[in-house]
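User: Hi! I'm a student and our assignment asks us to look at how structure tokens line up with a sequence. Could you show me two examples?

Assistant: Happy to help. In each example below, the sequence comes first and the structure tokens follow. Example one:
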Amino acid sequence: MDKFKIILILGTPRSGTSKLVSDIEENFNVSSCLETHFIPYFYKYKFLWGDLNKLKNRKKLLEAIYAFLKIWTLFMFSNFAKRTEDIFHENNILITEKYLNEIVSNSNDFSSLIEEMYKKYCEINKTSACIEKSAYFENLDLDFINNVFSDVKVIHYMREPRMVVSSWLKINEISPSSKYEGYKQWSSHFLNYSRWGYENPQKYLNIKFEDMLIDNTKIINKISKFLGLSKVKIKKQSKSSKLLSQFIGHNNINQKHIAARMHEDNITNKMPIFSEFHETHKRAGYCLDESAAINLTFFEKLLYEIRAFLSINNLKRKIKSYLPMLIWLCQILKIIFFINMFLKSGKSKQ
């Protein structure tokens, strides 16, 4: 088997990252898993588990990671899992949980623990590379990437900001609550990811959703060169493609369908933008109509910021980011048993 490689797909939610994962998995011998979201959060709080050179501490940390994944999965994918139970569980990195002791024994710190977890997932799926795609609403410190993965390639996938923000406002999960907050989040994502790419040019590739629609083959070839992976001779239907099909209610996902979705989104072309983010959009290569830009006063911005801070969705995002610390506290207080009972009851309801 070739040397293990991790492929990170970074991008805002609703920018087409799931379709990109499906395309990569169909064209290359790689495996992908459902969004996990745990790595940056546990990297931030890994000190809570003490010296990770000690096996018992690594075991407690990995147990906490699996608890996080179960809670996150229950929260984000419970309705989805009911419709696609078999495919859902095949694509879930939780399938590595039964190898917990082996993963812990083969590791010696946080970085190797995470890599062993993904190596085991690849071993189960008979591949040497794994796609980790987690699209975050919040802006993250990307320093964890180089500190966790020894061999990593990062694909930053972007979509026109108005399309993304328009889509965010149609969902209720943990998305921004206003156009202003949405544009602010999109802009901060772009600046943060492109900064990391500038500092790590050999590990970073920027791709636009719109370019993928225009010439899919050209972009796949570009990805092949970047990843150093050869394309498979015969395209295979990926597990993520099956999941995506079920998720949006279609049996066949193809470029015509995605193009139709984009055509529908063109109604957002007249969607107003805010002047303070206009330069960032231009820097990203999206030349939006400057005449449609809105100038906000200080007090208008303040009201938007207060609304965003007090929103329920912001509270949900905060709870998710602090979840590793809460799970650690449960371990300390010896009440992890009750978390498992809660998770089992949630699974039985599915």
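Example two works the same way, sequence first and then tokens:
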Amino acid sequence: MDGPDQAGSSEAGSSEAGSEAASNQAFRSQAASSRASSSDAGGNERSSDELRIVVAALTYKRPDDLAQIIPTLLEQADSVDDPCRVLIVDNDPDAGAEALVSKLAAGRALDYVHAATPGIASARNIALGAAAEFDILVFIDDDERPSSGWLAALVSTYREFRSAAVVGPVVSEYSVQPDQWIVDGRFFDRRRLATGTRVDLAATNNLLLDMNQVRSFGLEFDERFGLSGGSDTLFTRQLHAAGGVMIWCDEALVYDIVPEHRLTRRWVLQRAFRSGNTWMRTSLEMAPTPAARTLIRTELAARGAARVLGGTGRMVFGAVTGRRSQRVRGIRTIARGMASPPSIATSKQRR
């Protein structure tokens, strides 16, 4: 999800903060109302096993995607037994999604919050704040489409393991047929694991969070990563390091719709570079001391060099044998290995 560059005066920043605060307060009031309505007619408290769930889709100037995903998310919310609301977090400073959400919200469990400060990390933190009255926060991207039973599968896995997070798979579907070079390089292939597998890293494109555990760890998304990307990588690495358990749910599948502008050799190689760069930056950020950062920097540089060497060998092997898939995957490995530990805001291209 692409976002605007950081810019604006202190007055603009104050205005954005005011807009976010007002929007957050409105949503929290709605959440409190929902919590009250979950009591039965006799005034009894909700079941001890009942979960208050909010599904958050972050968006930035994607009205067509938003118009498609909102009805699907509302269907998913209706499919679970627990009280569930859908929250659209709008990272457009002009609040461009508000009118569409208002139009679709009539009588539905659909809410809007404005995350006016540019940067996806800020928008993610707005979602965390808005979920203060909920037990479960589920993140999904606005350009994704959940499979049938997606939310129910996430919640079921959470109930079984009571983990700090549940992570689901993402499968890419292409808006146009990609170059065979890109297919051979497997640039959009992602991991699939058995349900119940513990993981130590996740993105927010298909992620359930236990808000009580997140709050107990005192975690939020680092807004220095807001424009460059990687705040979700750092967040989940910190969650794991703090002792939070993250469980894989392979049945909770979502489909990522890849637009045409991302199906270029330049874009996929930049993405591979950014992936390596993000791992280095988050590793350095998690180092406890300056001495540890120096050691990690040295180790990462050595690993990067090994990647470049290994990727070069694979690329040459592919060229000699005529196996294009080996050659392209070698190039992809080189791109990941060429990443270096830079200052926080390097690439403006985000996942």
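Here is something you could point out in your write-up. The chain has two domains: 12-38+47-263, 267-337.
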